[in-house]
Amino acid sequence: MNEKAEQLTEDRENFEGLRDQARSLIMATVGENALPRASYAPFVLDSGCFYIYLSRLSEHTLELIENPVVSVLLIEDETAASQIFARKRLTYLCESRTIDRDDTGYDSILMLLTRRFGNVMDLLRSLPDFVLFRLTPRSGRFVSGFGRAYELAGERLEDIVRLGTHDPGPAVQKNSEQ
């Protein structure tokens, strides 16, 4: 395997590791007068979509309901980064949709959240102001380091395609489970 192919394989592993190990996402919503708001939420990933459970008392919840476009960021922890200027990060442009309590799949997603985050979900589930959202990624990018940027491709945005490559070397790494 040549150096470029090895780097692509390493970056594929970095992508999957960051995506699969992150427990919360940072999101940017758009509010009144098109003003951005940054926030975060614990999530589960299921069938290529992020699911978050938020209180209607939060401003970002109301913004997601009013404007269903949201940017999502998963980023390497600062303490784990070898270079603070080149932290591994995944960004997605998503479309949000509320999932009603009587919708098919509502209970199964809450079970996934409970498995991942424990009994706090029993308390949150009992509160009437909490809303389940599905964030469906429409596009995405992954940065694994300096000069190692990728567009996300494929049906569930699970393939990485090197940005700005003009050489004939390997530039695409597909999800091995496809």
- Uncertain spans: 166-170
Count the helices. How many? 4
Please provide the ordered H/E string of secondary-structure elements.
Answer: HEEEEHEEHHEEEE
* Shape estimate: globular
Rounded to an integer, what's the Rg over CA atoms?
Answer: 18 Å
Description:
This protein is 26% helix and 39% strand. It has helices at 3-21, 59-66, 106-117, 120-126, and strands spanning 24-30, 36-42, 44-46, 49-55, 69-75, 89-99, 130-145, 148-153, 159-162, 172-173. Strands 1, 2, 3, 4, 5, 6, 7, 8, 9 and 10 form a ten-stranded antiparallel beta sheet that branches. Helix 3 packs antiparallel against helix 4. The chain is globular.
